[in-house]
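the two lines:
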Amino acid sequence: MNTDTEEKKPSLTPKRQRAVPVEELDAVTIRFAGDSGDGVQLTGGQFTTTTALAGNDLSTFPDYPAEIRAPVGTLPGVSGFQIHFSSRDILTPGDQPQVLVAFNPAALKANIKDLEAGGTILVNTDAFTPGNFKKANIATNPLEDGSLSSYRLIEVPMTSLTTNALDGMGMSPTQVSRCKNFFALGIMYWLYERPMETTVDWIQHKFAKNPAHIEANIRALQAGWSYAETTEIFARTYRVKKAPITPGRYRNITGNDATALGLVAASKLSGHTLFLGSYPITPASDILHNLSKYKAFGVKTFQAEDEIAAITSAIGAAFAGHLAITTTSGPGVALKTEGLGLAVMTELPLVLINVQRGGPSTGLPTKTEQADLFQAVFGRNGECPVAVLAAATPGDCFTMAIEACRWAMKYRHPVILLTDGYLANGSEPWKIPAVADLPSFAVSHDPGAAPAEFKPYARDPKTLARPWVIPGTPGYEHRIGGLEKANLTGNISYDPDNHELMCRLRADKVNGMTQDIPPTVVNGPEKAEVLVVGWGSTYGAITTAVNELQKAGKSVASVHIRHIHPLPPDLGATLARYKRVIVAEMNFGQLETVIRAKYLAPTVGLHKMKGQPFKVSEIKAKVEAVLAGKE
Amino acid sequence: MAETTVAPKLERKDFVSDQVVRWCPGCGDYAILAQMQKVLPTFGVPREKIVFVSGIGCSSRFPYYVNTYGFHTIHGRAPAIATGIKLAQPDLQVWVVTGDGDGLSIGGNHLLHAMRRNVDIKILLFNNRIYGLTKGQYSPTSLQGMVTKSSPMGTLDRPLYPLRVALAAEATFVARTVDTDVAHLGSILERAAKHKGSAFIEIFQNCIVFNDGAFAEAESRDTRDDSVIKLEHGKPLVFGKNKDKGVKMKGFKPEVVTFEAGKPPADLLVHDENAGAQYAYALTHIEPPDYPAVPVGVFRTVTEPTFDQLSEAQLEAAKKPGGGDLAKLLAGGETWEVR
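prediction for all of em together
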């Protein structure tokens, strides 16, 4: 559906009857929390769409458990969705929510520590029963024991009110209970002056085959709105004005959605069929799901028997001339290591997308982390260089997916694109690019010589890429493989000098990719006391923190690295212009170690290993400590 | 690029690469390579449309010696790589060359899945019941109790039987042949080449250095008539130098019977290569030491849609007028205009 905010349709949102004061806010952070079966992600998603259409800038972060349906009412079953929306440009989903919507005691208990002091809690009192306290290991009723006295507590019996609203529809208590998230959403729409049209449209589309569900959910939504309108619990509404956003058409996009779109775009731009070999794994699977829907674009998706077959089938497709991709996370990358080595040795284009998650081993499948940098840069047997890129925001996943494909095909070499769980599932408004503005890249399969003189391992002098001659090309039949190649001919060679030469050529080829890296952009002054260096999904938190510090008059700048290997050629000189360099990352200092080794730069590390993204306040605190000479 | 010309008639030498063949003298692989190079020109498939894919092991050197496109990959992964090649270019004729270790041990998973998907690839499994390239450890087809470098007191593992694996995975062409019987070997390769779908061929292959004589009776010209049952579609299972032995079923169990030459009993099994897998599975149990002979030939062949055909059909079905519009895709979902 395309919706212009200016367009007016007959309103499904009732007119407000009650005169209440309006409080204008610059920005709000709301967290919805409940059982993973409570429809929390859906509620958050609907609030997000409506907020985007209202013209705010926004950023979201879903936080869901690894269990599909953990026992109802328990702490492991709590699912959360946070949205930060504002009348100005924002880059993070917010450090601390000001509003917590808790559907049950477990959700309250798991999230209350994050709520801002004096924040608002909206609870479903019907779920605050002795049975649920027991499931959540709560000794006393938090609504009555005074533990919430420093917050603004709004108690709403959502389940019973939804039951009343659906009276006469003949729905079971379970069915009724499933609609209470829309009741809560109705309240939130009233509170933040949001229209209900978008959600009503969505319900009608989603439950098109089940009119009873359409009516039930719309009734619940409207009942929530009317409840807020009529009861005097709510003394005011809140207004967040439109943000000044670059004009254009926008959509809300998650990192995984953007990655999939980037891959399809790269396929079109390069004129090569897209092949994805993948094995389902959290949080990368959505890329597989999305691409499997894009068959009209000629996209071939292959759900392999395991991670190894996922990458090796992609290598086969690359050999046969396709734009070959493999996607994975966590331990899946470990299994693909051997395949990556083969792609390096055979010098075939291949893109491996690692949606990083908490490790090691199975680790924290649904949580985010940046601890696979060493693995991406170094983690193979032998001298086995691959290019490593990293996306900075959900929307940047689109750009970097195209870039990864372009590099892989230009240099005939594997490229790893690092994203992470936070980018994959987080979303932001994304200005839809014009196809004409995307970089087009021609890819040649020219053997470079007549059949008799053909050398599979001859190289382009500028890129050191070898010819990509695909099966089916008459006269150029040749064999490749994982054994060391003789320079030029590609025949098996155990010659000592040849081996060193080939290792050198492969390394030189990857190091030479710096010719494709744009100049480093500094956010802030060219020289300052402190430079904060980050990579990947920490972009939003670092940039926000540095911008706020700059406004407060602090001497600080930031640099965000999207090319991890090779590093930008001007990075060393950039680092040298600042007295102190802080490297902030969600690991124990992996980029920092690389930077120290390469530039012998004395750096300060800021590390976080909690499965959660950085808060702006954590970055600011570190910078201020360094500025104050405490570190 | 090469100019398009009328394809000249190909000969054996057109399929011989410039690489020196480096198997041990007397290795069964030589015979298999020679037969392959002999039959390849008869397929009517241009050289550039043929790809040999292998994993790791002695057998996996094979692609280097055949002058077609070739990919010597990594241990056990050849079926997966071949699947990628075939999905990318369904008109290629793709051969996988593997061994008992490569195919059934480290690569067992890929082998199973390539066969159950019915990917149109032809898999040659050289079975010598030993690890040759790593110099003599037991393999998944080594018979229990076999003394090898890594099993000085005899192996504890019970062996896998390649054909039973192929049948269980529902390969649509399942056959066995012997490296020394070149005529039979050539005919099976030809039939595999013509088959559309996953073709699996177990080739008894002698490792002269580490497991010499593993299939001696089936290999030797002197003994093979009495040790090999040649399966022929529509014909009774008769074997022996004097054609005086046959196979019949006793319940679910095959039984070898002897009879006066030229007078086979009426209840001998008549081979039906299109029958259900349960029949072929019963045949795979005929082997020494429980039986005096072992069947070779096509155990089972059926026609079913191939994975690559189905994949192409889905792509075709997904094509619609105005489809594949990138601008539309990028602007999909809910959008809004900021002015």
